[in-house]
Amino acid sequence: MSEKAFELKFLSHESEDAVVASILQLSNSIFNPESESRYASFEEWKRRLSDPASSIVYLVHRSGRSTVPPPPVAFLFAHPRSHPEPLKNGSSQSSHIWLTGVSEEYRGRGCLDTMVDVLIDLEQQRRGSELSSMPTLTVCTVPAAFPSMWTWLRARTQWALEKELDGGKVLLSLTGRHDIQ
Question: What CATH number is given for 6-135 in this structure?
């Protein structure tokens, strides 16, 4: 991904509602959820983002000298998650990628790789850990409903299948980082 074409931005529990709303609008345009869905609910987004350990990493396309903030083209929303049964690495806590999406016209440009790498860095900073220590990240997907996401995850061997859940959903955890040799 050309670093000059995109600008990386972050949201935390202290973020302005208008920015959260613009990312929710992008999410809704990608996933087209039912209006009653928690994924389409501004209140649910704010509730999940209210935890200080939650974050939204997003990308905007650089727009030159415009004074109007450019709209987001990709996002990754992560929040703390407790697991009733320990993960394969023994951890019962993770930073869980609740939602992530990339506008169709920006797919295949490395947006998701970039955002996951930044999330790893954020989690390492939060924990104050050494770079060699991986934070525990998890994600769920439904391969039949989101084949592109499933393909992306399976193409990266550092994502390990934790378990199969109801409704065809699967839980995966990050076991490594593709840029660490």
Answer: 3.40.630.30
* Residue given tokens 């345009």 in the structure block: 29
CB 100 within 8 A of CB 115: yes
The amino acid sitting at 64 is G
Non-local CB neighbours of 49 within 8 Å, separated by 6+ positions: 11, 12, 13, 15, 20, 56, 77, 79
For 181, the enclosing helix (H) or strand (E) is none
Tokens 């949201």 map to which residue? Answer: 11
C-alpha to C-alpha distance for 149 and 76, rounded to whole angstroms: 13
pTM, full prediction: 0.88
DSSP string, 6-70: EEEEEE-TT--HHHHHHHHHHHHHHH---TTSGGG-HHHHHHHHTSTT-EEEEEEE--TT-SSPP
Nearest to 29, CA basis, from 38, 18, 40:
40
pLDDT in tens, 147-164: 999 999 988 878 989 999
